[in-house]
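Researcher: We're teaching a course module on how sequence relates to structure. For the next exercise, students receive a sequence and then see the predicted structure as tokens, so they can try to spot secondary structure elements on their own. Here is the exercise chain.
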Amino acid sequence: MDAIHTFLEVKDLKTRFHTPEGTVYAVNGVSFTLKEGETLAVVGESGCGKSVTMMSILRLISIPPGEIVSGEVTYRDRNLLKLSESEMEHVRGKEVAMIFQDPMTSLNPVLTVGRQLTETLRTHTNMDEEQSRQRAVTLLEWVGIPDAGKRLTDYPHQFSGGMRQRVMIAMALACTPSLLIADEPTTALDVTIQAQIIELVKKLKQDVGMAMIWITHDLGVVAGIADRVIVMYAGFIVEEAEVDDLYDSPLHPYTTALLQALPRADRRRDKNLKSIQGVPPNLLAEPRGCPFAPRCEFVKERCVNENPLLIETENRHKVACWVNVKTGALR
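Model: And here is the predicted structure for the students to work with:
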């Protein structure tokens, strides 16, 4: 690992959930790295393991029913999976922060926004009450909330959806973290507000100089945000590439299908969007063979019997597939 530039490395992370119906194989040997200042997008359909991977990294999985079966998460030369809970509390919020998908369920409805912001600051810094209040006002102004000083006494329900998400961003950035994890932060917002939030996060990222992991099911928002993209399916990483390489030359049938299903301004009107046939896999079954095989138009006998490893082809472009999607032949 490059100690100068790479400050997060995840190796062979596996997470399970033990339920009355059986064991859910949620994350199945995920490995990736993140460099300082880099933006990594993690994409895939709902239930593919994106959020569970990041919650596992921050040790936010409920145990039981969840269990981190194996893996290493090395952040600044510390394995987060080996730290005590009190040590992790210092990492969360101060060094690594997370914006959750739904701000209404993430913000405490019975506490004012000002109380929630100042509580974060006073937990992780030496600020007194007045200093934390002034910092809270600055943070709300920073994320574009008007009359910030007056709004500190408001409760979450008094803010619109877009404004609540801005409050969540302010809370995440309160202690100037080195890494921000954004878990589909624009999903519940209309398109105009989505664009505003994305531009806001990009600007704040540049101002702070932090790294970012952006979780989404929408490849449409990735091009303007990410440096590098990871595509997940059924708890596995099936492709990883620089963002331009992924759009220009996808190597996995699932990535290809996702891009073909994406509305584009340059697409001919008479050319229909292509849907992905079949249904997502049953995660209660232990993975055998390639998880995408039942839905893949290129499927071969080897795909059914053996799950391919994620291997690098060229230009840091990695793919887990036995088939060359350009020729349809086995690699």
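Model: If you want an answer key for the exercise: The longest helix spans residues 191-208. The chain has a mean pLDDT of 84.
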